[in-house]
Structure formats: structure tokens, C-alpha cells
Design goal:
This protein has 210 residues and is of the alpha/beta class. The chain has three domains: 12-114, NAD(P)-binding Rossmann-like Domain (Rossmann fold); 115-149, Double Stranded RNA Binding Domain, CATH 3.30.160; 151-206. It has helices at residues 20-30, 62-69, 81-93, 134-147, 151-164, 170-179, 181-187, 194-206, and strands at 12-16, 34-39, 51-54, 73-76, 97-100, 116-120, 123-127. The strands form two sheets. The protein has a five-stranded parallel sheet, with helices on both faces. Strands 6-7 form a two-stranded antiparallel ribbon. Strand 1, helix 1 and strand 2 form a beta-alpha-beta unit. The longest helix is centred in the last third of the chain and has 14 residues, at 134-147. The radius of gyration is 22 Å and the shape is elongated.
Length: 210
């Protein structure tokens, strides 16, 4: 499988299943999408602002739900394999992205894996085992959370500098900023000016100031 990013801003995600798995999926997508969760009961404590609809979907009623909600992605997270299969099939026939939570291994086109994700906006890092070993994904996510600390600020800083720099040394200058311990320390130290530290690094590389 090849990882891709998808922007769900302004889209709707339909989750079937109100257990812990359905709640985790709802929380994941609620940061961007309008999430609708359909289930006869809701067992988790938090669905992070998702719209909860108390109903008992059946394999025969899945089409009706897809027509009613018009989702960009459907998540099959019920404890009924037959219902999950019906959800997956109906979404596939309509060309809707779908995530079947009780499935692992190889998938056909349109069947997606939701990876473990660490964010320090605008930096997003994801790791997946293809749903083979969620425990490995969770472990790596915890490791990555520490590894990318401050990366969001660094991305914002170098993105701003990238727009201002010109000339053949631009790429080398930005690499020097990202590699500079002084800049990373400045980003993490209150009262310092990371941009000034970065421009000093750039001046050492290019001989010019920003």
C-alpha cells in the first residue's frame, strides 16, 4: 500500500458503530470533517462533537443511509461482520472511500487504512502496519510524538523564509536552518527570536541577510 493524504475539510464522514472503535474513528475525523455516527447504542465516553444518531442499521438499510448522508468516507466499525460487509459493498458500488475496521491485510482500491497519526500542525506524521499490528502503530506514534516536537514551528518558520529567499543558495540555506541546533533551541525557548537566529544561520551560508 502507498500512503496518501486526503483533505476532509467541509466533508462528511459516516461511521457505523458506537463502540470504542467507532468513537476512536469519529474523534480522528472530527478535527476536519462533519462526522455522523449511527448506532443503536453509544458505549464510549467521547465522540468529540460528532452527530450521534441512535438507530439500528441493517444490511438492507445501508443504501438509504448513504443516500441520506452523502459521505466522502464510510467507516464500518460495528460488531456485526455481515453488516460491515454490506456497508463496505454498498460504499464500493457508489465509489465512496471506505474503512472497514474489522479487516486487515491487502485491500482493493477505495478501501483505506486509517493510520496512527501525530500532529504538530502543519506537520503531520502517520504510521501504519496495514491494520496488521495496531500495537506497533501505537508504540511508534508515541515515539514520533517526541521526535517531531517543535516541527510545526520549524515548518512555519522555514516556509516563511522560503518565500523571501532567492538565488541558487536558497535550498542550502533552508537545509542549514533545519539542521541548526541553535534554531531548534530558539523555537523552544521563551523570549528568544527564532527568526533572527535563523537569519544569522542563513547569513553564514549565503553571506547575505534576509
Amino acid at each position: 500500500m502507498i500512503p496518501l493524504m486526503h483533505d476532509f475539510d467541509g466533508e462528511c464522514v459516516l461511521v457505523f458503530g458506537g463502540g470504542s472503535v467507532g468513537a476512536r474513528k469519529a474523534r480522528r475525523f472530527a478535527a476536519e470533517a462533519h462526522v455522523v455516527v449511527v448506532s443503536p447504542r453509544f458505549e464510549a465516553d467521547s465522540f468529540d462533537g460528532a452527530e450521534l444518531i441512535r438507530a439500528a442499521p441493517t444490511p438492507e438499510s445501508v443504501e438509504e443511509w448513504l443516500t441520506r448522508i452523502e459521505p466522502a468516507l464510510v467507516v464500518a466499525a460495528t460488531d456485526d461482520p455481515e453488516l460491515n460487509a454490506a456497508i463496505d459493498d454498498a460504499a464500493s458500488e457508489r465509489g465512496i472511500l471506505r474503512n472497514r475496521a474489522d479487516e486487515s491485510g491487502e485491500r482493493d482500491v477505495g478501501s483505506v487504512v486509517v493510520p496512527a497519526t501525530v500532529r504538530d500542525d502543519p506537520v503531520v506524521v502517520s504510521v501504519s502496519t496495514g491494520a496488521t499490528s495496531p500495537v506497533v502503530s501505537r508504540h511508534l506514534r508515541q515515539e514520533l510524538a517526541t521526535a517531531i516536537e517543535g516541527a510545526g514551528q520549524m515548518a512555519a518558520l522555514t516556509g516563511s523564509l522560503r518565500e523571501e529567499l532567492t538565488g541558487p543558495d536558497r535550498r542550502a540555506a533552508l537545509r542549514a536552518v533545519v539542521s541548526s541546533d541553535a534554531v531548534w533551541k530558539a523555537l523552544d525557548t521563551e523570549g528568544t527570536n527564532p527568526r533572527q537566529v535563523a537569519t544569522d544561520v542563513i547569513a553564514d551560508v549565503t553571506g547575505e541577510s534576509v
